[in-house]
Design goal:
The protein is of the alpha/beta class. It contains 2 helices and 8 strands; from the N terminus they run βαββββαβββ. The chain has 2 domains: 52 residues, 2,3-Dihydroxybiphenyl 1,2-Dioxygenase, domain 1; 57 residues, Signal recognition particle alu RNA binding heterodimer, srp9/1.
Length: 132
Amino acid sequence: MQCKPNLKKKLPLIDKQIVFMYYHNLDSAAFFYENTLGFENTYDDGWVKIYKTTDNSLIGLVDILKTGFHKEAEKQVMLSFEASNIKGWYAYLKSQNVSFIKELSDENNTPISAFLIKDPGGYKVEFFKWKH
């Protein structure tokens, strides 16, 4: 599903989008996103690592103990990836022994086919495909 820009206002463009997530074990999170999911590392400052997920979207992983910006709290963020080959991602992540929260579902009362996994820091990661 592509979003159309709001043509009522002339706003500056946003070049890229980054979601930052905070971890007690940055190394295990970095391994998961770089090796299990295969994302390209584009920045590494030791305590913060950024991974490219698409041309305009990135994930930032931060060592929670080296930042005063966020304090520990329940994982309120869910990272979602739209993927046309949802079954391919499902099969691949099953082969990687990733922790699944919800198996691949294609329920009639939802507009998506989806599954949920848990990353090494406890964040929910959703992979979905629009049914339309």
